[in-house]
Design a protein that fits this description.
Residues 60-153 form the Methyltransferase domain. Keywords: Methyltransferase, Transferase. It comes from Actinomadura yumaensis. GO terms for molecular function: 2-polyprenyl-6-hydroxyphenol methylase activity; 3-demethylubiquinol 3-O-methyltransferase activity. The protein has one domain (3-267): Vaccinia Virus protein VP39 (Rossmann fold, 3-Layer(aba) Sandwich), CATH 3.40.50. Helix 1 runs parallel beside helix 5 and helix 6 (138-148) packs across helix 8. By secondary structure, it is of the alpha/beta class. It is globular. The two termini are 33 Å apart. The protein has helices spanning 3-18, 29-33, 41-51, 68-75, 87-100, 138-148, 162-165, 212-221, and strands at residues 58-62, 79-84, 105-108, 122-128, 149-160, 167-169, 174-175, 185-188, 204-207, 225-232, 242-243, 249-253, 256-258, 261-267. The protein has eight helices and 14 strands. It is 29% helix and 27% strand. The strands form four sheets. Strands 3-2-1-4-5-14-10 form a seven-stranded mixed β-sheet, sandwiched between helices.
């Protein structure tokens, strides 16, 4: 296992242990256990557009963290499987499934080296928000995802737009990350997107820029057919963005808005 994977796994082990403990605004585990879903309307809409009703479908959630979204798909009737490279995350996801009395499979694996047992099993492969920036090669990620799909199955990827990923702050505008190129960039972080304090031993990460062109080319190289590529201009929450009068978070640039996230739907022929 290379140094970047070890570094990032240490980071995500720490986050899997820290997130959703009742003191952050991002993960509401109590609400989930009381019957609510962690899925956004955008996530539901994109999956529905790709595959219809998920009830009874085999759905694979890549980079599932500690399982809230995977289990939310299970609650909607999917035969859900979650994959994460963090042993801490997978253990916590299994405990959460038992506590919620939901059936789901959780697999500990690097997404670029998925076990053969997942090959060709799924109607939907899903991943959302903060996905590709942790991956050294979009082409390798797409190949892994495609290998898990049945013929006719759909990939649904929702991720932050590269314009947001490359930006440290919006007001003032400070850029500290490339738009594209897939070259590794090292960061030192004292907080995550959900919590403000992290152990000083778990602050290093390695992240990778992937432009929209690289992402779409990677889909094609994996043998998938792109059915939709949507760019959105507002978010529910993002600490880097600016809240508009309607409550939505946006990326102002002069007298216009820049895209903040994108959704890609592709199908295995």
């Amino acid at each position: 296992m290379n140094d970047a994977v070890v570094t990032n796994r240490n980071w995500w082990d720490a986050l899997a242990d820290r997130h959703g403990r009742g003191d952050d605004d991002y993960y509401d585990v109590d609400a989930f256990l009381s019957g609510e879903s962690s899925l956004t309307e955008r996530e539901r809409t994109e999956v529905a557009a790709a595959a219809g009703d998920v009830s009874g479908l085999d759905l694979l959630h890549l980079q599932c963290h500690f399982g809230l979204d995977t289990l939310s798909w299970a609650r909607e009737g999917a035969q859900a499987t979650g994959v994460d490279f963090s042993a801490v995350a997978v253990e916590r996801a299994r405990k959460l499934a038992a506590e919620a009395k939901l059936s789901a499979e959780f697999v500990e694996s690097d997404v670029l080296a998925l076990p053969e047992s997942l090959s060709g099993r799924f109607d939907v492969v899903f991943a959302s928000y903060g996905v590709l920036c942790w991956i050294r090669s979009a082409a390798e990620w797409m190949a892994s995802a495609a290998a898990c799909l049945r013929p006719g199955g759909s990939l649904v990827l929702i991720d932050m737009h590269p314009l947001v990923t490359m930006t440290d702050t919006v007001e003032p505008l400070v850029v500290d990350f490339p738009y594209a190129g897939e070259r590794p960039v090292r960061f030192s972080n004292s907080s995550s997107y959900a919590v403000n304090e992290l152990s000083p031993q778990t602050t290093e990460t390695v992240q990778y820029p992937h432009g929209i062109g690289e992402v779409v080319s990677a889909v094609a190289s994996a043998g998938l057919r792109v059915e939709s590529l949507t760019e959105w201009f507002d978010e529910d929450i993002d600490p880097k963005l600016v809240r508009s009068p309607d409550g939505r978070m946006r990326f102002p640039f002069g007298d216009q808005w820049l895209p903040t996230s994108y959704g890609l739907r592709a199908r295995r022929p």
